[in-house]
Write a structure and sequence with these properties.
Blueprint (H helix, E strand, L loop, with lengths): L4 E4 H17 L3 H13 L3 H20 L9 E9 L2 E4 L3 H15 L24 E7 L4 E8 L1 H4 L3 E5 L4 H16 L7 E9 L1 H11 L13 H15 L14 E11 L4 E8 L5 E5 L1
Parallel strand pairs: 1-3, 2-4, 7-8
Antiparallel strand pairs: 2-5, 5-10, 6-9, 7-9
């Protein structure tokens, strides 16, 4: 019988509280290197100027500990909870929500969440509730991915179900169409998360999870077929010429990431979730 590990939810909350501030202020070094590389390689003079502004903005945010963007996002937390973990000290969902509230208040981050989406749209004034996803996994650890998702890019995302006959060509068509329709509104250079399979709701979740991967080659899909499709889609997206901030160029996206799941014989659920160049997320492990 496995030993049960005890973790106090207040420890988790403290790390989340700091994370929601850090991801809005600080750019991880791998992302900074990626942006600097794009700045050097972008042939379009207008696109290059946009990249200069992006890079300078990142340095200012990190140095002065101020938000990288006025839209400080909706907080999203993915929780991978080991089946051999016993949580104590309260309700983990309440603890995470309180941590988001405290972090956004302490960081003087813009509060952007409305309590009800359609009729009153009254601001909750503390950027809660966050969106929290729980997965039960083997082991005695807990890993959280904390993200801030701005809605300039979220608004440009989409989900659909393709027929099996549309296949790979249909996926390519819809990903490129989504990016072209978004144009400058998603704040390129973007990251494109693609979820394929399962059901429509799972495809959307897979697309969001894809955005949480690491930057660069380590973030490619482990299946070589899907890794190659990621590279092909990145080339197609960058061939649109939208470029940084929509000013033209060859760097419309920095990455395309695909997650997939088995599905029904009658369809191909497909979701495309765009993320702006901020890529605000971090992983916390216990």
């Amino acid at each position: 019988m496995a030993n049960i590990r005890t973790i106090d939810v207040r420890e988790i909350a403290e790390r989340v509280r700091e994370a929601v501030k850090t991801i809005n202020f600080h750019t991880p070094q791998p992302v900074m290197v990626q942006l600097d590389t794009i700045l050097v390689q972008e042939p379009s003079p207008y696109g290059r100027q946009a990249m200069r502004d992006i890079v300078e903005n990142r340095h200012i945010a990190s140095t002065q500990q101020v938000p990288m963007c006025q839209d400080t996002g909706m907080a999203i937390v993915f929780v991978e909870l080991g089946q051999d973990v016993h949580l104590t000290g309260g309700d983990v969902r309440v603890a995470i929500t309180d941590a988001v509230r405290q972090g956004y208040e302490e960081g003087f981050l813009r509060k952007s969440i409305v309590a009800e989406p359609l009729f009153e749209r009254r601001n909750t004034k503390d950027n809660t509730p966050p969106v929290i996803h729980f997965d039960i996994v083997p082991g005695d650890g807990v890993t959280l991915t904390v993200a801030a998702k701005g809605f300039g890019a979220e608004n440009m995302s989409r989900a659909m179900v393709l027929t099996p006959a549309e296949g790979i060509a249909g996926v390519k068509r819809e990903v490129v169409r989504c990016v072209e329709d978004a144009g400058p509104n998603a704040c390129p250079p973007i990251v494109v998360g693609v979820g394929i399979g399962g059901t429509l709701d799972l495809a959307a979740l897979l697309a969001k999870k894809a955005l949480m991967r690491e930057v660069g080659a380590v973030g490619h899909n482990l299946d070589p077929r899907y890794a190659e499709l990621e590279r092909e889609l990145l080339d197609l997206v960058n061939a649109t010429g939208i470029g940084p901030q929509g000013w033209g160029g060859v760097n419309t996206a920095t990455d395309v990431r695909i997650e997939w799941y088995p599905t029904h014989i009658a369809g191909i659920p497909l979701a495309i979730n765009l993320d702006c160049h901020l890529q605000r997320h971090t992983r916390i492990s216990f």
